[in-house]
């Protein structure tokens, strides 16, 4: 049975109740659930065939929400966050106490992103908590570049699909992955834009 296309209100409600949704972002489509829902995160891991223990990304609805998951940032770290968000930058930062274990790496860091997509930001905030996010592909396979590909592969395994009703600028590649836990930024994966500054 194919899952339904959802409007923002229904998608936010489904996420708040533990659902797993396929969501359009400003980069690649992804599988999402509430970051504080371990059962939903386990479902995503099973759908992807993902190795347990590999942390997922946090997708936040605002800068303030993102910073709630960070601990003791230096001035330069916070400055980079403010320059990069919202935007296609996943920043690895020291995790705050209480951050859900499924999104925290073994060394105590967390990867966070705030999408440059107001509708999606509003959806995340309406869902009542930041989302755990991962690309929509099976483990080891190439990520899907658009919603049609993702929908074709996952329509029977998720609880719903959400995409914008309006045209937005979409980057058909993953966000940059930048480690800010050292003395200076370390680019682990390039993205659509260069790191500001």
3D structure, described in words:
The mean pLDDT is 92. A 9-stranded mixed β-sheet has the order 7-1-2-6-3-5-4-8-9, with helices on both faces. The chain has a single domain (8-189), classed as DHBP synthase (Alpha-Beta Complex), CATH 3.90.870.10. Helix 1 packs across helix 5 (118-126). The chain is of the alpha/beta class and 197 residues long. It has helices at residues 8-16, 38-48, 63-67, 75-84, 118-126, 147-154; strands at residues 21-23, 30-34, 57-59, 89-94, 109-113, 131-135, 160-162, 176-179, 186-189. The longest helix has 11 residues, at 38-48. Strand 1 and strand 2 (30-34) form a beta hairpin. The chain starts with 7 loop residues before the first helix and ends in an 8-residue tail after the last strand. The chain is 26% helix and 19% strand.
Task: Kindly list the characteristics that best describe this protein.
single chain; 197 residues; alpha/beta; DHBP synthase; nine-stranded mixed beta sheet
Helices and strands, with pairings:
Blueprint: H1 8-16, E1 21-23, E2 30-34, H2 38-48, E3 57-59, H3 63-67, H4 75-84, E4 89-94, E5 109-113, H5 118-126, E6 131-135, H6 147-154, E7 160-162, E8 176-179, E9 186-189
Parallel strand pairs: 1-7, 3-5, 4-8
Antiparallel strand pairs: 1-2, 2-6, 3-6, 4-5, 8-9
Helix pairs in contact: 1-5
